[in-house]
Amino acid sequence: MAKMNMIAALNSALDLQLQRDPNVVIFGEDVGYFGGVFRVTAGLQEAHGAHRVFDSPLAEGGIAAVAFGMGINGLRPVMEIQFADYIFPAYDQIVNEMAKLRHRSGGEFWTPVTIRTPAGGGIRGGHHHSQSPEAQFTHTPGLKVVYCSNPYNAKGLLTSAIECNDPVVFFEPKRCYRGPFYGDPHKVPTWNSHPDGEVPEDYYSIPLEQARIVKEGGACTVIAWGTMVHVAEEAIRQSNVDAELIDLQTLLPWDRDTVVESVRKTGRCVIVHEAPKTSGFGAEMSASIQERCFWHLEAPIERVTGWDTPFPHTTEWDYLPSPGRIAEAIARTQEA
Amino acid sequence: MPERLTVSEAPYTIGIPPFRPGEKADFGGGFAEQPGDLNRPEVTCTAQDTATHAVGLIRVLDDEHVASGEWDPKLDEETLLKGLEHMMRLRIFDDRMIKMQRTGLLSFYMRSYGEEAIAIAQTMALEEQDWLFPSYRQPGAQFVRGRDMVSMICHCIGNTEDNVRGRQMPVHYTWKEGRFISISSPVGTQFPQAVGVAMASAYRGLDEVCISWLGDGTSAQGDFHYAVNFASTFKPPVILNVVNNQWAISTHANLATGGRTFAERGLAYDIPSFRVDGNDFLALYAVTKWARDRASAGLGPTFIEVYTYRAGAHSSSDDPSAYRPQDEFECWPGGDPIDRLKGHLIGRGLWDEDKHTELTERIDAEVMAAYKEACTFGDLANGPYPPASTIFTEVYEEVPWHVQEQREELGK
């Protein structure tokens, strides 16, 4: 075991995959010599060669298309979109091309691309360095959508994403690259003292489609992903309610059994995400949970989300779900 | 080089086609460019060495169907006859398919009419291991690689033997065995994907080239620039073709670019760029062979404008008489690619009208037999179709729980 922040853990996953599979290549904007604007690919070009880890022209659509073609022809590309906000020029290539290739070709062609992209707010990034567009991909059959939350699951999930023979959109909560975030921008803890900052240096993987129970509890199920896992953890502490916290980890396909079992046990559910509320993935979760758990529910399912507005710059702390807002939602579920 | 026509009284420039319905199409009596005008540079040349080739027109066959000039590939009799046969096969096949569409046995169809030489000559100039990343108007490549015609018709019908299980519209062929990569409806996406395929071939140290095609209209897409720029940057073994058939449904090429030729664009990316007579089988073959030799030598991409004319409608849903003169194709100086190669072969004493009629009848019978056999696996009007369970399979490598639940809900 070693102490790693999320950047080091992701770097370790990439490094090991480059070692294990000669067909893995990594490319994107600034990922080569410089090692990425967040340093996730630092040192990999030097260690594995410029033909395996390289910078690309600044064209997200081109990056995705080239990854698609490489994946058809025997490679296992890991492409980076520098910020999730910039994924949209690649949307057609991801949604119409990668996601549908296996189906449209009767299984004759497929492309095992991993799309890594830093997402989410909390870094003073304004509306074009803060968005969390997971729902724009969970609505696309053929994609898998993963959202890590800490160093340990970042490494294990990225390992599985790269090995997956389906295209995977892999969101990294950039606010948590260097430490967990509990909703207070003035307190900046590191991963150093967090149990999930203990990361094996060797290879391991965490299966996709598996949620993680962060904290067991009997009074309410709180479901979150990415940065919101930590904010929700803080909210549960403040609420004094014995809530169970589920880190969903993979959003498409999500872990039905873990979620359903928990909500049937607690009878109450709060879903937290930082993306806007309308048509957010919380809406899908809420609908699906009531279909499966209606007769076990004691209170309406609550959603605590970002607002249905563009993501703000200086007022982002009033945009992101706060521990206080989440705690209030948990409390409301206890009133029924 | 064609003149660019615009509406002069508009507040901004509006590109227009040279002729509209009711007008007499007049292209000035023939191409100004002649075989022998342009040299055949070494494959080690620079992009600038092709500057004249990007604004001229590489031709081998003249108006009398005589081959000449440095670009004459000097193909043997067998290759020439094979090329003619594949082009005839494609045209007869297309005619049968459009009849099927008109009688409700297909939902939709797109012919290659007038453009038969392109995919056929270009694929014949490549090696078996080379990748084909086509748009919807290069199905002829499959005949070159020996695809079973029954299988192609079954795809177009979407019946129980369709290898893509009724999931795609007709003409969206997939054929991995022939390295014919799945066709996608959003136009142009394949162009930068082809660059990725070629980069993978280079990465793996294989002598493989990837060829891709898109149309003059599609060259306006961002994917066009992605492809050419990535090809320029990484220099993989890729051949990028803009098939300028002058019409994107009703939109004339004068609206696809404000520039002169499409080939000229490649020069700006420092890629050797050629403008070739797309109805001249020999010129197409020669230019493509040049590009393959260059790619195979590790010298990177070639950019080609294939200058042709879309003789038929865009698709079975289109009526070109609404936007262009009905006889425009007959007036266009590029002629018919089949007539031109046929004329060349007759001129050399390798072919005659009797043989041509005989071959036409043989292919007619072949297509009819394939059509009848394909229909035994189901037609659009009467079925049977692939089982409904195929809606749920091959979405992922393994069927996930939520898709499985929905399959059970359908109950099939």
Brief summary:
The complex is a heterodimer of chains A (336) and B (412). Chain A contains 11 helices and 14 strands. With 336 residues, chain A is α/β, with parallel strands linked by helices.
Largest sheet data of chain A: 7 strands, mixed
The CATH top-level class label of the largest domain in chain A: Alpha Beta
Distance between the termini of chain B: 58 Å
Task: Give average pLDDT of chain A, whole number.
Answer: 98
User: In total, how many beta strands of chain B?
Assistant: 9
- The H/E string of chain A reads EHEHEHEHEHEHEEEEHEEHEHEHH
Helix percentage of chain A? 25-40%
Any low-confidence stretches of chain B, pLDDT <50, length ≥5? none
**What is the assembly state of the chains in this entry?**
heterodimer
CATH homology group of the largest domain in chain A: Thiamin diphosphate (ThDP)-binding fold, Pyr/PP domains
Tell me the structural class of chain B.
alpha/beta
What does this structure look like?
- The complex is a heterodimer of chains A (336) and B (412).
- Chain A has 336 residues and is an alpha/beta fold.
- Chain A folds into two domains: 198 residues, Thiamin diphosphate (ThDP)-binding fold, Pyr/PP domains (Rossmann fold, 3-Layer(aba) Sandwich); 124 residues, Rossmann fold.
- Helices cover 35% and strands 19% of the residues of chain A.
- Chain A has a seven-stranded mixed β-sheet, with helices on both faces.
- Chain B folds into two domains: 337 residues, Thiamin diphosphate (ThDP)-binding fold, Pyr/PP domains (Rossmann fold), CATH 3.40.50.970; 31 residues, no CATH class.
- Helix content of chain B is 37%, strand content 8%.
- Chain B contains 13 helices and nine strands.
- Chain B has a five-stranded parallel β-sheet with strand order 3-4-5-9-8, with helices on both faces.
- In chain B, a hairpin with a 6-residue loop joins strand 1 and strand 2.
- In chain B, helix 2 packs antiparallel against helix 11, helix 2 crosses helix 12 and helix 6 runs parallel beside helix 7.
- Chain B is globular.
- Chains A and B meet through helix 3 and helix 4 of A and helix 6, helix 7 and helix 13 of B.
